[in-house]
Design brief:
Layout: H1 3-15, E1 26-32, H2 42-56, E2 67-75, E3 78-87, H3 98-113, H4 131-139, H5 146-160, H6 164-173, E4 177-182, E5 188-194, E6 209-210, H7 211-214, H8 220-224, H9 233-251, H10 259-275, H11 278-291
Length: about 290
């Protein structure tokens, strides 16, 4: 079979979709072994490929009307998965959370086959700036994007605050614009921040970032975990012990017990950066950023 023939077979369901054709109908993912892992056989890679497309929602096991897909192995240590984003029954596939689900499937293979365990994708890291944000910062001659500036300021305020009111006051004292979201009975249920002067390209409105869009642990529920309940001296000793074990815990397949400890250590470093002497403040802040 020639490549054009294969492409026609893969793309055929797109013309039969019952809705609008997607602007980009090709789904492509590479799955790679750790360099220290043993070389998997073709049969093993085939098992991995079937599990990955099933986890992603491309072709669940036993679904004969699923999307058409192929797996290509052109190197010993990885494969490429390629699929058409159109089911054979004329419907669109549901791929929400496909990468997270594939990471979970990968952890199962690592544990079952004795492969190098990678850190679980628990979405606790800060969100990276998108291309448009980076280009916008470059056009304005800024050293960093608005998202990065907000992440640092909000994280410092969260690490030092003792209550919701204290947190919001610290954000405003730092010069940020703050938008509160409250329930019908006046309870704070969310917040968003914006840099003064940072507006959409047409200048019509401020560019707001909700806490959860800056980092997982900067959402309001996660922020409140920082000061409720009160921490006793014995808790600090236990936290130190658990923080030292966090790296090993996170490295085991499917386990994320250390994620909270790692976030606590990040808070400690952010607080130290805010309170440290001017002589070392930049270095401590750089260390906090690198850890995050």
């Amino acid at each position: 079979m020639t490549l054009p023939d294969l492409a026609l077979l893969l793309d055929a369901p797109v013309d039969a979709l019952r809705g609008p054709r997607p602007a980009e109908h090709i789904w492509h993912v590479a799955v790679r072994n750790h360099p220290d892992d043993r070389i998997l056989s073709d049969a093993e890679w085939g098992e991995v490929a079937a599990a990955m497309v099933a986890a992603a929602g491309i072709a669940e096991h036993g679904d004969e009307q699923a999307c058409r897909w192929i797996a290509v192995r052109h190197a010993p240590d990885h494969i490429h998965l390629l699929a058409t984003l159109a089911r054979q029954d004329g419907r669109h596939p549901r791929l929400r959370g496909d990468i997270l689900a594939m990471h979970t499937a990968a952890r199962a293979f690592e544990a079952g086959w004795g492969l190098t365990p990678m850190s679980p994708l628990d979405r606790t890291a800060r969100r990276r700036p998108v291309t448009g944000e980076a280009e916008k910062a470059a056009r304005r001659g800024l050293d960093e994007t608005a998202r990065e500036s907000l992440q640092r300021t909000v994280r410092t305020a969260a690490a030092l605050a003792q209550s919701d009111t204290d947190f919001l006051d610290r954000l405003r004292d730092a010069g940020l614009r703050v938008r509160e979201r409250r329930s019908d009975d006046g309870v704070l249920v969310g917040y968003a921040v914006a840099l003064p002067g940072d507006r959409a390209d047409r200048g019509s409105r401020p560019v707001w970032f909700a806490g959860a869009t800056l980092a997982y642990d900067l959402s309001l529920p996660r922020f409140r975990e920082r000061f409720t309940p009160a921490v006793a001296p014995a808790d600090w000793a236990l936290a130190e012990h658990r923080i030292r074990e966090a790296s090993a815990l996170l490295g085991r397949a499917g386990q994320a017990e250390g994620a909270g400890d790692v976030a606590a250590l990040g808070d400690l470093m952010a607080a130290c950066a805010a309170q440290s002497p001017a002589l070392v403040r930049d270095r401590v802040r750089a260390a906090a950023d690198a850890f995050e």
